[in-house]
Amino acid sequence: MRADRALALHLAVIALLFGLQYVLSPYHQGNLARIMVLATYATGYNILFGYTGLLSLGHALFFAAGMYGAGMSMRYLDFPALAAFPAGIIAATLLAAMIGALALRTTGVAFMIVTLMFAQAGYLTLLYFNEYTRGDEGFVIPQADRAIGLIDLSADDTRFIAAWAIFSVGLLIALAIVRSKAGRVLVAIRENEERTRMLGFNPFPYKLGAVTASGAFAGTAGAAYALLFGSVGASFAAIQYSIEPLLFVLLGGAGVVLGPLVGSVLMFYLIDYAREVTTAYLIVVGIALVLLILFARKGILGSLRRRSDGWLP
Amino acid sequence: MTNQTKPDSTAGSADETRRTFLKGAAAVGAVAAGTQMLPGMVPYIQAQSSAPVKIGFQVHKTGIGAAYGRWYDRTTKAAAQLINDEGGINGREVEIVAEDDGTDPKRGAEVVEKFAKQHQTDVAFGTLFSHVVIGSSPRAGELKMPYFVVSEGHHVASGGLNRYTLQPGITDVKSQVQSMAPWVADNLGKKVTMIFPDFAFGHDHRDFFSEAIEKQGGKVIEKIAIPPTEKSFTKYFPRIPRDTDVLYHVMVGPAVLTFVKELGEFFGGRGPQVFGFLDSLEAVDINSPGLEFLDGSYFWEGNPRYRSDISSDHDAFYRKAVGVDDNGASITDSKDIATYSHMFGCWETLHIIKAGMEASDYAGPKDRANLIEAVENIGVMPHSRAHPQGDKLFNGRTHQAFGHQFISKVGDGKLTPVHKTSIFDGYYPDETDYTTQKL
Fold first, then answer.
1. Are A31 and B198 inside 8 Å of each other by CB?
2. ipTM more than 0.90?
3. What pLDDT score was predicted for residue A125?
4. B117: nearest CB among A30, A143, A233
5. pLDDT tens digits for range B151-181
6. A160 touches chain B (CB under 8 A)
7. B135 in contact with A, Cβ within 8 Å
8. Which domains does chain B carry?
9. Chain B residues with CB-CB distance to A230 below 8 A
10. What is the per-residue pLDDT for B35?
11. What is the rounded distance in angstroms from the CA atom of residue B202 to the CA atom of residue B275?
12. Does residue A177 surpass a pLDDT of 80?
């Protein structure tokens, strides 16, 4: 019964997002398309951080891997958009599996530092091979190439639908993961890895699966950004794009499937409106995070779940 | 306006392209003069609307471009004030709608969208950093929002962007670098060692200058790429060949002071001739401690920071309007150094938007396509208050302006111009033709 209620809620959120395109102004509709792409990224990050308890500072590398996997396959191999999108996802997934296999030899703060260093190495690699990647400047994917058949991904309506579809599928996959047996093992690892091991589970493949799955989500978002918004660049591999999903998850609620969506929406508009008031908008973001720690340490949905009967997955 | 001159498909050299362009420019100039459509010569027409012309200003208020953004902001406000004092555009007041892009490409695209859909500006303008331009331009093209960048990147003329993106107020890096090579080869030497940051900006210098110096009979004998995170540079200097005539540097960012200091310690009082791009020292006082080694060296300048014998009355007018003294600092704070080699681009671009809107009888967003065509045909821009840096040619096919460059020598605590290039020193064959794209 509880599971059905949770599924119904998530489907209702998906339906609500779809319906918003008919209500919102063109400006906010465009924003929501961006937010759903970013929320897909953060939803994957939540599997690793919120459910498994592993704090990565290197996920921008996987976002960029998806972006470059899609962008460079179109630029140099003449892939159509329909093939470039999975190419980006595969590139990010493989990279996440490889880096996860190495980084998971460490734990805690060391894991955080190692993922950060891998991401920095990746960022510098993109700069170094400027001849192919165009480095910090990046490159544009021509509008004419950003289409699947007759569907123009650069048009506002189709862009929204595409972003909505990607986010919806991602949200349902994340829900399925956290409600599965493997998802419960992830939570067990987060709560007490040694006890999980004593219960007969080997944590490593589960943690590697979480890194890989979150990398796949990041790559999906990166490839989607390239195709929907038309630009590819090394700046998307910089540290700030590793911090962003962490902020979204913290704000919305770590370990709550819908948390990253709530966090993405609030943080996007908090920054957008704060920029109109002051150039010191990061102070506003900082104050918001301080207030969050003081009054809602588990994030907005995390705190709501604690005050309810805890059925929210 | 006249029809755009078609590109010469047989153009194999800058000279041929120059002749082709001059024919077109002459025709444009003749007709424009006849119809009084040159910048600064446009009589105001009766305004069809009293609503202001809204110009979205994508400004780097935060992030790595903030020092540039501060002066781009001041220059833009001054230019808008002047335009309004002289009657606005088509009789309508100009309103600048500024949005911080954080010098970030993702935010840049969001800002363009905000201009189009929320602020409903007529055009977007003012972006400097190349990665922000490249991140924002696709959205501008999709929204059919005229996007006037002031970036000096080669991204526009290379054909990588779209018909709605133009760079009419400042020359690009390829043109700048190419125009330096003849003077460097003739006056400083032909064996060049280049030190550049190991990312796109540095690579552009490496590639464009290597090609240009070879055409002058010279050669780049060593290319030293410095990783962008580097904080100490001495270990790279032993790679500079002993027979180097000229050391060409384009280091940027906060480490530039360390770079110059360590270079001075390495060479002592000797060493090759030194030539650099002032991008390294924009917004930096040339008399800062640690920069003594630069004394006697040469710099490219886009617009001479210090007033000198060659400075024009137009420069004096512009300098006063934007609040810069004769030494290139703010008139209210002598330690606040202007980004004088670049910021004129904002002033000139706003005047080009004005000229384009008046030539196309621009009344609102439905006339954006006409505005693009009008600017594509603008051609010759005479040295004037609207163009205080100097006269320019706008290539409507590549959406790129070409202008004069300056070489200045460091001495007596200031930069003194020693050479001014011709516009065609920096001209190169077309690499694209945006006019073939649909509006």
1. no
2. no
3. 93
4. A30
5. 989 999 999 999 999 999 999 999 999 999 9
6. no
7. yes
8. 14-172+340-403+428-436 (3.40.50.2300), 174-310 (3.40.50.2300)
9. 138-139, 142
10. 40
11. 15
12. yes
